[in-house]
Design brief:
The complex is a heterodimer.
Chain A (H helix, E strand, L loop, with lengths): L2 E12 L2 E12 L3 E5 L6 H9 L6 E6 L11 E4 L13 H6 L14 H13 L15 H14 L4 E5 L7 H14 L4 E5 L12 E6 L1 E5 L6 H8 L32
Parallel strand pairs in A: 3-7, 3-8, 5-6, 6-7
Antiparallel strand pairs in A: 1-2, 1-4, 8-9
Helix pairs in contact in A: 3-4
Chain B lengths: L7 H26 L3 H21 L3 H22 L4 H22 L7 H6 L7 H30 L1 H6 L4 H23 L4 H14 L4 H26 L3 H25 L1
Helix pairs in contact in B: 1-6, 1-8, 1-9, 1-10, 2-3, 2-4, 2-8, 2-9, 3-4, 3-8, 6-8, 9-10, 9-11, 10-11
Classes of the chains: A alpha/beta, B mainly alpha.
Chain lengths: 262, 269
C-alpha cells in the first residue's frame, strides 16, 4: 500500500547541532496527524523535510513513494505566520492564485478553472469581501486564512499546516479546526503546533517531536508524550499545566504518580 | 529651454534616461520587495573594480564592468543562498575590495588619468551611442524576463518556500535577478554614477509601493517616477551647470520627501 508519507531513519542537523535524529514513520492516506512538541524541538524542520524544502543529512523522505518535490500539486503548505510588511504590493486574490502555479500554463496565465478554484477557496474561508484588499491591510487572523485558502487552491492530497492558529482568535480557531475536520474526508492533514488545545477530536494520530519522534496512532495525549515533548517534570508530575476550555470531546488520561519507564 | 534638445550630448542623455527609467523602474521594485538594497549597493561599488580593470586592459569600460560585475554578482548570489547568515559581511567586503581594486588599477594604467568623478557621480557628457545600444538590449532582456516569469517572481518574492513547493525554480530565478540587477546598475552608472545608483533603485519603488496593490502597478509607477526625476534632473543639471547624477538624485529626494509629508498630512486630516 502506498503511504502519504514515509521517513526512514532521517537525521538533520543545523551547524552540526542535531535537530532531528532517527525519525522513522509511515503515515497512511487520509490520516489527520498532529505534530506537537516544544518550540525549538524540530517540528518546523520535520515539516520542511516532509515538504522537500530541506534535505535530510541521512535517511529517506518519501511522499506517495517518491521524493517530495516531484509533486507540484499534491501538497498544500500553510507556512507559519509570515509578515512581509504592510507595503508588499499584493492582493488577497493574487496570493491565493499562487496556489495554482503548479498547474498553470505560465504563458497563458490563469485559466477559467484556476479562477473558479480561487473564488471557491476564498468563499470557503469567508474571504470573498476582501479579495481585492492588499495583504498588509488584513488582520493576523485574516492573513492566516488567506494562506490556508492558497494551500487549498493547490487542490492537494496532503495539507501541511505549521502553527495555523497563531494569528487567530478563539472562535476563529474553533471554526478553523472544524474546517480541517471536514477537509480530512478528502485529504491527509498534518498539523504542526505547540498548542495542545488545538488538537481537535478529528485528529487520528499524534506525533511528539523533540529531537526524536514518538508516533501514537490514537488521538490521545499520554504522559509518555508529554515527557518526550517537554522533558520529565519533578517527581513525575506533569510539567505542563493543561487547561483547555470549550473542547469537551477530548480527555487527557490521568497522570501516573510514579516513574513509568525508569 | 527647448534648444537644449538639439544638443547631441543632451539627446543621448535623454534617451539614456528613458532606457534607465525602464530598467530601474522594473528591477527597483524587485530589489525593494526582496530586501536586496544592500546587495545592490555592493554590486554597484564592486563595479568600479571592473571599470579599473577595463582601463588597465584598454577595453571598453562598460564591457569590462559588465564582465567583472557579473562574476561578483554570481559570487554574492551563491553566498546569499548558501550562507545566508553571513551575507551582509561578504557584501561589505566585496563592496570595499572592488573599489580598492579599481582605484589601484587606474593608478597603474598608462596614459591620462581618466575622470574618476564621472563614474562616481555620473556625467551626461560621456554617453556614446554604443552605450545606448547596450541599454536598449538590457531593457529588452529585462522585459522578456519579467514577461515570462512575472508570477514566479512574485511568488518567490512573497514566499520562496511556498513557491518552491509549487515547482518554481527559485534559485535559478534568483541568479538571473542578481545578474539583471548587476547589468542595470552598470548602465545606470553612466547617468548618475555608482554611488548614487542605489537611489534610483529604491526611491521610486518606495513611493510607488504605497499606491500599488500589485507588483506590476508598482513597476509601472516606478518607471513614471524615474522618468520624471531623471528628465527634470537632467534639465536642472544643464540649466544650472551642475553634476547630473547628484541633480537627478536631489530631484528624486525632493519627490521622496514631498510624498512622505503628503501621506503624513493626509493621515492627520
Amino acid at each position: 500500500m502506498s503511504y502519504a508519507f514515509e521517513m526512514r531513519d532521517v537525521c538533520f542537523s543545523y551547524n552540526s547541532v542535531p535537530v532531528l535524529e532517527g525519525i522513522s514513520f509511515e503515515l497512511p492516506e487520509k490520516e489527520y496527524l498532529a505534530i506537537i512538541g516544544p518550540n525549538g524541538g524540530g517540528k518546523t524542520t520535520l515539516a520542511k523535510l516532509m515538504l522537500g524544502l530541506m534535505e535530510p543529512d541521512k535517511g529517506e523522505v518519501k511522499v506517495f513513494g517518491k521524493p517530495p518535490l516531484e509533486f507540484k500539486t499534491r501538497i498544500g503548505y500553510v507556512p507559519q505566520y509570515i509578515d512581509m510588511g504592510k507595503g508588499f504590493p499584493i492582493s488577497v486574490y493574487d496570493v491565493v492564485m499562487m496556489g495554482r502555479l503548479g498547474r498553470m500554463n505560465r504563458l497563458k496565465g490563469p485559466s477559467e478553472e484556476d479562477k473558479a478554484v480561487v473564488d471557491g477557496k476564498l468563499e470557503l474561508l469567508g474571504l470573498q469581501d476582501c479579495r481585492k484588499s492588499k495583504m498588509g491591510e488584513l488582520s493576523g487572523g485574516q492573513r492566516q486564512r488567506v494562506l490556508i485558502a492558497r494551500a487549498l487552491a493547490v487542490e492537494p492530497d496532503i495539507l501541511i499546516l505549521d502553527e495555523p492558529t497563531s494569528g487567530a482568535d478563539s472562535p476563529m480557531q474553533v471554526k478553523l479546526l472544524d474546517v480541517l475536520g471536514e477537509l480530512n474526508d478528502t485529504m491527509t492533514i498534518v498539523l504542526v503546533t505547540h498548542d495542545f488545545s488545538v488538537i481537535s477530536k478529528n485528529v487520528t494520530s499524534v506525533a511528539c517531536v523533540n529531537r526524536t519522534m514518538h508516533l501514537h496512532k490514537s488521538p490521545e495525549i499520554t504522559k509518555d508524550m508529554l515527557d518526550v515533548a517537554y522533558g520529565k517534570g519533578m517527581d513525575g508530575q506533569c510539567p505542563v499545566e493543561l487547561i483547555a476550555h470549550g473542547i469537551p470531546h477530548r480527555v487527557f488520561p490521568e497522570h501516573e504518580n510514579k516513574e513509568s519507564d525508569a | 529651454m527647448l534648444e537644449v534638445l538639439q544638443l547631441q550630448f543632451f539627446q543621448h542623455a535623454l534617451i539614456a534616461g528613458i532606457f534607465v527609467s525602464i530598467a530601474c523602474g522594473i528591477i527597483g521594485p524587485l530589489v525593494v520587495i526582496n530586501r536586496m538594497t544592500f546587495i545592490s549597493g555592493g554590486i554597484a561599488h564592486a563595479a568600479y573594480g571592473g571599470i579599473g580593470l577595463a582601463f588597465f586592459l584598454g577595453i571598453s569600460p562598460i564591457l569590462g564592468a559588465i564582465g567583472f560585475t557579473l562574476v561578483i554578482a554570481f559570487v554574492l548570489a551563491a553566498i546569499s543562498i548558501k550562507r545566508k547568515e553571513r551575507t551582509d559581511t561578504f557584501i561589505g567586503v566585496i563592496w570595499a575590495v572592488g573599489m580598492a581594486f579599481g582605484v589601484i588599477l587606474i593608478d597603474l594604467s598608462p596614459g591620462y588619468n581618466m575622470d574618476l568623478m564621472s563614474f562616481l557621480f555620473g556625467s551626461i557628457l560621456v554617453i556614446p551611442t554604443s552605450d545606448l545600444y547596450i541599454m536598449l538590449v538590457l531593457d529588452i532582456l529585462i522585459l522578456l524576463f519579467i514577461g515570462f516569469n512575472y508570477r514566479e517572481l512574485l511568488a518567490m518574492s512573497y514566499d520562496d518556500e511556498f513557491a518552491t513547493t509549487m515547482g518554481v525554480p527559485v534559485n535559478v530565478l534568483y541568479f538571473i535577478l542578481i545578474a539583471l540587477i548587476a547589468l542595470t546598475v552598470i548602465v545606470t552608472i553612466r547617468l548618475v554614477g555608482l554611488i548614487l545608483v542605489i537611489a534610483l533603485l529604491t526611491i521610486p519603488p518606495y513611493i510607488s509601493e504605497y499606491y500599488s496593490r500589485s507588483l506590476i502597478k508598482m513597476m509601472g509607477l516606478s518607471i513614471v517616477f524615474n522618468l520624471i526625476f531623471i528628465v527634470a534632473g537632467l534639465y536642472f543639471a544643464y540649466a544650472l551647470d551642475i553634476t547630473s547624477g547628484a541633480t537627478i538624485i536631489a530631484t528624486a529626494s525632493v519627490g521622496f520627501f514631498l510624498n512622505f509629508f503628503w501621506n503624513w498630512a493626509r493621515q492627520r486630516i
